[in-house]
Amino acid sequence: MRTAKKAQLLRLHFAESDEYHGKPLYEAIVQRAKELGIAGATVFRGLEGFGETAELHRRRVTKKDQPVVVTIVDTAENLARLVPEVRAMMGTGMIATSEVDCIRIENPPPGGVPSP
Amino acid sequence: MLQTGTAKKVTIFINEDTQHHFGSLYDAILQFLLRKGVAGATATRAMAGFGAHQAMHTTRIEVLAEHLPIRIEFIDSAAKVDALMPALHDLVTDGVIEVQDTNVVKVASRDRPSPPVEPHFEMRGSGRLMRIYMGESDRWQGAPLYEAIVDRLRVLEIAGATVYRGILGYGVKGHTHKSGRLPFSRDLPIMISVVDSEEKLAKAITEIESMIQDGIIVLSDVDMIRLVRSRPEPEPESSHADR
């Protein structure tokens, strides 16, 4: 079964070593998004990158400092609730939004009655 | 490519620690020669020597060990050497340049001549970017779902697909995808990103829809530039041409 709707995609770019109240920033943001009832969030780690300070973020022997991207897809209203909070939590980084078409797919588990 | 017969041999004597724009001078000279397509150049570090400054450079005294003479040699045709000489003249700020006539007896290369690299084509156009979100532990007919989807996309001749593994996430099902303590117990988020035309993606979605039990597909408009080496096959004529 397929349900399609208009949505927004939010991307947050920052470093893996960024922290918020003693825990990784990306964990804190995902937790906050969950508390706010945002549909979903996914964190990806990049291999290498640079940002505002032009300092290269990459894996080092002593510390993990690779770039991190959090992607969130939800309605514009829900993201509007989340963005101000995230903005306060992030130090430096980038917040980008884009308009997307979102398709949710739900199929019964195998063995169940297949949908027509 | 160097030819056998008469040629010019250029020898440049400089110091190892002579600087050129924050790098070493010998490196700058070698880079310059490489860029200009010189057949070959060799830099050798000497054991000891002295130059115009009348100071002995030797490995035996530790403080002078970083200050050893470097000799760069290269051989090329007289015309090429003449063309390079003004630039070399400017590059070597402290040292000696020497040119002598030489005779090239043999030029051998083990590599077969490489076929000329054809310039790539740029295919521009507007397309759609599709992101498919799922869990790493999702399966389809025994195989990981993301592998099955990529295989299916390949059959459908979709331009390309990339699978990303996230490090943390949650989705519609509410459970958090996190790496477990044991490597085989992990269920991390997976995202497949695909770029192609709207029509081909619409076809792909109907095909992979039945494979996904629960997931999200996100589509957005993109401008795409494809760089391809092979000449694209001409598109079949549109059906409304003669009708």
**What multimeric state do the chains show?**
heterodimer
Number of strands of chain A: 8
SSE-based structural type of chain A: alpha+beta
Number of domains of chain B: 2
Percent strand of chain B: 35-45%
Give, in spatial order, the strands making up the sheet with the most strands of chain B.
Answer: 13-12-14-9-15
For the largest beta-sheet of chain B, the strand count, sense and barrel status come to: 5 strands, antiparallel
What's the tally of helices of chain B? 4
Strand content of chain A: 35-45%
* Elements of chain A, N to C (H/E): EEEHEEEEHE
CATH level 3 topology of the largest domain in chain B:
Alpha-Beta Plaits
Helix content of chain A: 10-25%
CA gyration radius of chain B, whole angstroms:
31 Å
Gross CATH architecture of the largest domain in chain B: 2-Layer Sandwich
Tell me about this structure.
The complex is a heterodimer of chains A (116) and B (243). Chain A is α+β, with helices and mostly antiparallel strands and 116 residues long. Chain A contains 2 helices and 8 strands, in the order E-E-E-H-E-E-E-E-H-E. By secondary structure, chain B is an alpha+beta fold. The chains are: A alpha+beta (116), B alpha+beta (243). The interface between A and B is medium-sized, with 30 and 28 residues.
Short description:
The complex is a heterodimer of chains A (116) and B (243). With 116 residues, chain A is α+β, with helices and mostly antiparallel strands. Chain A has 2 helices and 8 strands, in the order E-E-E-H-E-E-E-E-H-E.
